[in-house]
Write a structure and sequence with these properties.
Strand content: 5-15%
Distance between the termini: 45 Å
Shape: globular
Oligomer: single chain
Structural class: alpha+beta
CATH architecture of one domain: Orthogonal Bundle
Helix content: 55-70%
CATH class of one domain: Mainly Alpha
Number of helices: 19
Length: about 600
């Protein structure tokens, strides 16, 4: 059964990032470590008692479609009601519309807990929050006043409506059209892969729809964004008649069975009524506001799954007595020399690999969230701009690296179980089935890598990455712990930073001369970024842990084991993960031609 990892979340928030992460941000006067710990503890209680018990049953039952609509699996609607009554949708939203202002890094930490406990459930409030965020930044005041209070309260939910059957990720090919009619538009078209596009949770769903106004330019330049509610909303906020929006089917998927992935029809007769958001033909720009919020949320799902897979695999390995490891701690029930499999070196290797990955991913994602806090709330405009550039750089890395590593961890969890991991009743297989989508939706890993190269690295000729590399170098040079493990992690992280620096220069050269060659190594470069950033933060974590360990004693009421475990995990990351930076850097610097010059006909 899932146990929220409050110890490590607290370590990252309060000891690794600390109060300095919010220094200069005056919008959170009441925020403190005690407040954050209280919020996280309450989130953990709800997740463990309400959401986690529905995870396997929801997977087995799945969402149900009928001509009348979509219903969630047993228990989900009641859980959502409790979620709303507990005020959780308000966390991190604007107080102007009933929200509870907390830093993004705390809201992100809470979101991890929901995703670990029950991803299918978490997707609905995650997308609602993203829709509300986009509307708050790009909608008119009248639109914000009409829709945001109900979205923020959770009385209504929201969706992202982008993909079409013929378009996939190429949004320039969308055909959904919008015909002007007085103060609104009539929307006609079909969309696919709409998560929680229809359900029985709430009486209204606010769809944020990309469509092309009649006569608009072709490609992405002609896309606009529209609010298309399931039920029309009167000017006083009351609900009117049903809009011409219908879920025609739900997909049969590998995983996340409890989350309905809908095929949505807009305007099968007279046209669905939609309201233009912002200016015409700027829809893709506006949708990226929503998409970037969602990409951070999907990135954290990578380590949310890895945490669950780790917990289950570790519990299994502690209980499963089988075989005689090279160093047997004591005789077990399996016979002379037999011991729990957690003592077998390869099982330890798998579990340490999962644990080190989780801790690095969590640190990176919460650090990225802290940069969003500084970008939105710091008093100094120059600091806000630098923080936004850093966050923009990090989000595709978080989304791409964390989801790929999360899938790897979920697979390792099955392996640690042996044959029983392949049996559905243990639950280990569900983690892998559910996790697999995270590297695809909100943009595949390849799309994230292209975004990192084109929009982030190429846009400023590497300035944001250079600033990050310099900061990592200076910080690592400044670590002074004499603890042997911490020093080893620092040394390995410095080597990885140097490799990333050389790879970045090589890639910038390719971007300027041969974009196809650069694209051929874009994903390895993204992986190198994630691995190196993880190493930097693990080195900082080891420094903190070594210092705390030297000052902590059990007699004084401390917990030395907590910091010893952190050092152990960081050492593993340095010795068994960071060496991969050398291979990835070599691929970036010399592997592009094998892709760019390959004949597609021969593949």
């Amino acid at each position: 059964m899932y146990r929220a990892p409050l110890d490590d979340i607290g370590f990252v928030l309060h000891e690794l990032l600390g109060a300095e992460a919010l220094a200069g941000c005056g919008d959170f006067p009441d925020y403190s470590a005690d407040l954050a710990s209280t919020v996280l503890a309450e989130a953990a209680r709800f997740a463990e008692a309400v959401l986690a018990p529905l995870n396997q049953s929801g997977d087995r039952e799945g969402a149900h479609w009928s001509a009348a609509g979509v219903t969630a699996p047993a228990g989900f609607k009641a859980a959502y009601r409790q979620f709303v009554e507990g005020g959780w949708p308000q966390l991190g939203a604007s107080p102007q519309y009933g929200g509870e202002p907390v830093p993004q890094m705390l809201a992100t930490a809470v979101q991890e807990i929901w995703a670990s406990a029950n991803l299918s459930f978490e997707l609905c409030p995650m997308l609602t929050h993203s829709a509300a965020h986009a509307l708050a930044l790009t909608g008119s005041q009248a639109q914000r006043d009409l829709y945001l209070p109900k979205l923020v309260s959770g009385e209504w939910t929201g969706t992202m409506v982008l993909t079409e059957p013929q378009a996939g990720s190429d949004l320039g090919l969308i055909r959904t059209r919008a015909t002007p009619e007085g103060e609104h538009y009539r929307i006609f078209g079909q969309k696919i892969f709409i998560t929680w596009g229809e359900h029985d949770y709430t009486e209204n769903i606010v769809h944020m729809v990309l469509a092309r106004i009649d006569g608009a330019p072709p490609g992405t330049r002609g896309i606009s964004l529209f609010i298309v509610p399931k039920v029309l909303v009167n000017p006083d906020g009351s609900l009117g008649r049903r809009n011409e929006v219908r879920c025609v089917s739900i997909e049969h998927k590998l995983g996340i069975h409890a989350s309905p992935t809908c095929v949505m029809a807009f305007g099968e007769r007279a046209g669905a009524i939609g309201h233009l958001v912002g200016e015409a033909n700027r829809g893709l720009e506006y949708m990226f506001v929503m998409m970037n919020t969602a990409r951070l949320g999907v990135g954290l799902q990578g380590y949310a799954f890895a945490e669950c897979a780790l917990q289950q695999a570790a519990d299994w390995a502690r209980a499963r007595v089988q075989g005689k490891p090279p160093a047997t701690p004591q005789a077990g029930a399996g016979g002379p020399g037999a011991a729990p499999i957690i003592h077998h070196p390869d099982v330890k290797r798998m579990l340490l690999g999962m644990k080190s990955g989780v801790e690095a991913m969590r640190a990176l994602t919460l650090y990225a969230a802290s940069r969003l806090d500084a970008a939105a709330h710091h008093r100094d405009a120059a600091v806000r701009a630098a923080a936004q550039a850093r966050a923009d750089l990090l989000i595709p890395i978080v989304k791409g690296w964390c989801t790929e590593l999360g899938i790897e961890a979920a697979s390792a969890g099955i392996q640690a179980h042996g044959g029983m991991g392949y049996i559905e009743e243990t639950g280990a297989a569900q983690f892998l089935r559910d996790a697999r989508i995270t590297a695809i939706y909100e943009g595949t890993t390849g799309i994230q890598a292209n975004d990192l190269l084109g929009r982030k690295l190429g846009r400023d000729q590497g300035a944001a990455m250079s600033a990050l590399l310099k900061e990592m170098q200076v910080e690592l040079d400044g670590l002074r712990s004499t603890n042997a493990a911490a020093a080893a992690v620092r040394s390995a992280a410095l080597e990885a930073v140097a490799l990333l620096g050389h790879a970045t220069q090589s890639l910038l050269g390719m971007l300027g001369s041969d974009a196809a060659r650069a694209a051929g190594v874009a994903v390895p470069y993204l992986e190198l970024c994630g691995l190196t950033l993880g190493g930097w933060l693990m080195a900082r974590s080891a420094e903190v842990a070594a210092g705390k360990l030297a000052r902590t004693s059990t007699a004084a009421g401390g917990d030395p084991a907590r910091y010893a475990a952190k050092l152990q995990t960081a050492r593993f990351y340095a010795e068994q993960r960071l060496p991969g930076a050398l291979a990835l850097a070599r691929i970036v610097q010399s592997g592009a031609a094998s892709v760019a010059e390959a004949d597609a006909r021969l593949i």
